[in-house]
From TrEMBL:
<feature type="transmembrane region" description="Helical">
    <location>
        <begin position="413"/>
        <end position="430"/>
    </location>
</feature>
<feature type="transmembrane region" description="Helical">
    <location>
        <begin position="302"/>
        <end position="325"/>
    </location>
</feature>
<feature type="transmembrane region" description="Helical">
    <location>
        <begin position="113"/>
        <end position="132"/>
    </location>
</feature>
<dbReference type="InterPro" id="IPR002645">
    <property type="entry name" value="STAS_dom"/>
</dbReference>
<feature type="transmembrane region" description="Helical">
    <location>
        <begin position="139"/>
        <end position="160"/>
    </location>
</feature>
<feature type="transmembrane region" description="Helical">
    <location>
        <begin position="219"/>
        <end position="245"/>
    </location>
</feature>
<dbReference type="Pfam" id="PF00916">
    <property type="entry name" value="Sulfate_transp"/>
</dbReference>
<protein>
    <submittedName>
        <fullName>SulP family sulfate transporter</fullName>
    </submittedName>
</protein>
<keyword id="KW-0472">Membrane</keyword>
<dbReference type="InterPro" id="IPR036513">
    <property type="entry name" value="STAS_dom_sf"/>
</dbReference>
<feature type="transmembrane region" description="Helical">
    <location>
        <begin position="41"/>
        <end position="61"/>
    </location>
</feature>
<keyword id="KW-0812">Transmembrane</keyword>
<dbReference type="InterPro" id="IPR001902">
    <property type="entry name" value="SLC26A/SulP_fam"/>
</dbReference>
<dbReference type="Pfam" id="PF01740">
    <property type="entry name" value="STAS"/>
</dbReference>
<feature type="transmembrane region" description="Helical">
    <location>
        <begin position="345"/>
        <end position="376"/>
    </location>
</feature>
<dbReference type="GO" id="GO:0055085">
    <property type="term" value="P:transmembrane transport"/>
</dbReference>
<dbReference type="GO" id="GO:0016020">
    <property type="term" value="C:membrane"/>
</dbReference>
Length: 573
């Protein structure tokens, strides 16, 4: 007794370590030298250069300030890398959140957004410790492709005002159906200068990616646009004219006033943030795993994402998640481990401290051009075409998720898309489950043929019309229970014994067990033995939980033994 408890405690500690130990500790424990630090420093600087314009652009598109985008990337990015379950994950503001964040700001104000971000962090921490990260990966692929494409369309639509330099009256509506007529009415106010700046920014990024793919094209394009605006005194909106520049440091940590009414008001938004953040961050970790051959700890990653969102909210930032593009950049830049992500956050802080005054010259149309490129890259065009060609079911899930994302709500799109994908999967699985009758065969030994003898099976020597044998093949679950149950209900009244072969059943759920239980009662009332063969330990556990035990049913290891038992019951002498 005394020895068992320490062993059990040790196993629990080992399991906890496997699930929640940050990859930073794993990397340091394995040995971390100067060469690894240099690789991480180069990768961190590369990612910081990419993240600098993106963080500001995403924040502005979300209805926040560019400074809040930098706070998010610095605080959130540092915590994600320091505490996360992925070696290469880069955290920060993400384009996927633009729609949700902007809607939350419009409905609840900036204080409501910060409170929702903090609550989402708590939800993510709870999800991680409840080990729900294991199940996030079950989101169907067409759903992720569909909502990503939908988000890309919404991001591009949200930047039309800045891309064209429009000056509409009143506040811009959030929903796409209302936004497009609003922008159409404001089309006469477009600015040729803003259009030139945005197109020039896009052109620089595209050309640089074509001929110098390793250069930081987004930063170069934004810097050139800012230089042109300053040198030529171009009449376009800038960070300075719209937001008054960005501060030269981090604010003191604080949270807005918290009341029960406010918590209840922002809770739906917080749940949406947590759901999307979990999906986005774990998808990003999976991408990093595919690029490196490593394996991330999904539940540890959720805990880190939660802490990062709480930290971001404390410093006035917005939602944090793992970012696929920046994480992939980190891997390609040769990162060794999480230190690269931590250094990326520190480099951003240095940029903020040193170059804050220069950010005032960055034109908003240039940042809109950056987000237009991001939106285009978000659409997985090859995946969309493949899914559309695959089959009607996959295309339907993709289309429904895409349309709901654009015209309804992102959370609703994910839930409905997942439900539709699950129904289609259940329908397919039910078609793979079958029940067939078989005439029991007995082995007949033949003389040695020179190869050590042989065993033959002869139906005519074994047929017994009083013994029915049914083979169930495939998962016996609620989707297949109706068709299998219909066959079993038509069992001949003249049968003296019934044998169910479950050796080809990998899984049975409560509905399948209930069908067998009903059959067992039916057979017992008629005085006919029901014999189950080929059951694994897992199947028997499920069947036992539904009281499928002797004498209601009998378990035998093989068909031959089951037949012998049935014959003995029919002819005791």
């Amino acid at each position: 007794m005394g020895r068992g408890r320490p062993c059990r405690a040790w196993n629990l500690m080992a399991d906890f370590s496997d699930l929640f130990l940050p990859k930073l500790i794993t990397v340091l424990r394995d040995g971390y030298d100067l060469h690894a630090f240099k690789a991480d420093a180069v990768a961190g600087l590369t990612v910081a250069v990419v993240a600098l314009p993106l963080s500001m652009a995403i924040a502005i598109a979300s209805g926040a300030t560019p400074a809040q985008g930098l706070y998010t990337a610095i605080i959130g990015g540092f915590l994600v890398s320091a505490l996360g379950g992925s070696r290469f994950q880069i955290g920060g503001p993400a384009g996927a959140f633009i729609v949700l964040v902007a809607a939350t700001v419009m409905q609840h104000g900036m204080d409501g957004l910060i409170l929702a971000t903090a609550i989402a962090g708590l939800l993510l921490v709870a999800a991680g410790f409840l080990r729900l990260g294991t199940y996030i990966k079950f989101i169907p692929y067409p759903v992720t492709v569909g909502f990503t494409a939908g988000i890309a369309v919404i991001i591009f639509a949200s930047q039309l005002r800045e891309l064209l330099g429009l000056s509409p009256d009143g506040s811009e509506p959030g929903p796409l159906v209302e936004k497009l007529p609003y922008l159409w009415e404001a089309l006469p106010t477009f600015s040729a200068t803003a259009v030139a700046v945005s197109l020039g920014t896009i052109a620089v990024i595209v050309v640089q990616r074509r001929y110098r793919p390793h250069w930081p094209g987004m930063l170069i394009a934004v810097c050139l646009a800012a230089l042109a605006v300053w040198a030529l005194s171009l009449p376009v909106a800038t960070i300075g004219s719209r937001f008054g520049g960005i501060p030269g440091g981090l604010p003191a940590p604080h949270l807005p006033e918290i009341t029960l009414a406010k918590v209840q008001a922002v809770l739906p938004a917080a749940v949406s943030f947590a759901l999307l953040g979990a999906i986005e961050s774990l998808l990003s970790a999976v991408v990093a795993d595919a690029m490196t051959g490593r394996r991330h700890r999904s539940n540890c990653e959720l805990v880190a994402q939660g802490v990062a969102n709480i930290g971001s909210a404390l410093f006035g930032g917005i939602c944090v998640t793992g970012t696929i593009a920046r994480t992939a950049t980190n891997v390609r830049a040769g990162a060794h481990g999480p230190v690269a992500g931590m250094l990326h956050a520190l480099f951003l802080l240095v940029f903020m401290l040193v170059a804050a005054p220069l950010a005032a010259y960055i034109p908003l149309s240039a940042l809109a051009g950056v987000l237009a490129v991001v939106a285009w890259n978000m659409i997985e065009r090859d995946a969309v075409l493949t899914l559309l060609r695959a089959n009607t079911g996959e295309a339907s899930v993709l289309g429904v998720t895409f349309l709901l994302t654009i015209f309804r709500d992102l959370t609703e799109a994910i839930v409905v898309g997942f439900a539709l994908g699950a129904v289609l999967f259940i329908a397919r699985m039910s078609r793979t489950t079958a029940i067939v009758t078989a005439t029991p065969l007995v082995p007949v030994d033949r003389p040695d043929d020179g190869n050590g003898g042989r065993t033959e099976f002869h139906e005519e020597e074994a047929a017994d019309p009083d013994i029915l044998v049914y083979h169930i093949r495939g998962a016996f679950f609620f989707g297949a229970a109706a068709s299998v149950g219909a066959v079993l209900d038509r069992i001949s009244d003249t049968a003296k014994a019934l044998i169910l072969d479950l050796s080809a059943v990998p899984f049975i759920d409560s509905t399948g067990a209930a069908v067998i239980e009903s059959l067992g009662h039916k057979m017992r009332d008629r005085g006919v033995p029901l014999i189950l063969i080929g059951t694994t330990h897992e199947l028997r556990q499920e069947l036992f939980s539904h009281d499928l035990k002797p004498p209601l049913v009998r378990y035998e290891p093989t068909l031959e033994i089951a037949r012998s038992y049935a014959q003995h019951r029919m002819d005791p002498a």
